[in-house]
Write a structure and sequence with these properties.
It is a single chain. Helix content is about 50%, strand content about 15%. It is α/β, with parallel strands linked by helices. Helix 2 crosses helix 11 and helix 9 packs across helix 11.
Length: about 220
């Protein structure tokens, strides 16, 4: 998926879940719950020793949803990115800005969202051809930085990730700063519900966050 298409997707779908689990069935159920809760963009996090194998297992389960975009985060190099893209990843996210990874994604028309924490990094990302950046870790850097980026680099779309609460106050703070969407992990997914297999409860939590985001933007 090209970055312009990805950004267009974020215009309608503001919550991007960020998730990993060693058990592929847990990942499948979590994505399913997220989809039923209104999510249409999902970031699988490449952690552990079996990230690629887990991703290859989950992808076939979601071919039925032609409006669901699944990508991969915590990617550090183009070789790993290529493996995930071949397995079906539609976008690539990294914790920091990796120039060779950015070049690979731009050349292959794959949406790449690099993590940045400074204006210099944001500018470098823009010159690489990136059209969206990830402010990370969002709770450490703060929403004022997003507003600053938009003031000097208004052409860049922004997806802050890390420590954002799915509450009206938590989401409003970032959307008022001009971001396109927010990435959410542990704040969105209750570990106890996941451990107990309460995926219906998880669906309700996601639906609530999605509703709040839509309400803020309307």
């Amino acid at each position: 998926m090209e970055i312009t298409q990805f950004i267009k997707q974020t215009e309608s779908h503001k919550i991007v879940p960020v998730f990993f689990h060693q058990d592929a069935n847990v990942v499948i159920n979590t994505i399913e719950s997220s989809y039923k809760g209104g999510v249409r963009i999902f970031e699988f996090v490449n952690r552990g020793l079996n990230g690629l194998e887990t991703f290859k297992t989950i992808i076939p389960h979601f071919k039925k949803y032609d409006d669901l975009v699944i990508g991969v985060g915590t990617i550090y190099d183009s070789k790993t990115a290529a493996q995930f893209v071949e397995a079906g990843a539609e976008f690539i996210v990294s914790p920091g800005l990796v120039s060779e990874l950015g070049a690979y994604c731009v050349q292959n028309h794959i949406a790449y969202i690099p993590g940045i924490a400074t204006i210099t990094e944001a500018t470098t990302a823009m010159h690489l051809g990136c059209e969206m950046i990830k402010i990370f870790p969002a709770n450490v850097i703060g929403s004022a930085f997003a507003k600053a980026v938009k003031s000097v680099l208004p052409q860049l779309a922004i997806m802050p990730t890390g420590g954002i609460n799915p509450t009206e106050d938590g989401l409003k703070e970032w959307f008022k700063a001009g971001v396109n969407c927010v990435g959410m992990g542990s704040q969105l997914f209750d570990k106890l519900k996941i451990n107990n297999g309460d995926f219906e409860g998880l669906e309700l939590d996601v639906a609530k966050a999605v509703k709040v985001a839509i309400t803020i933007q309307s």
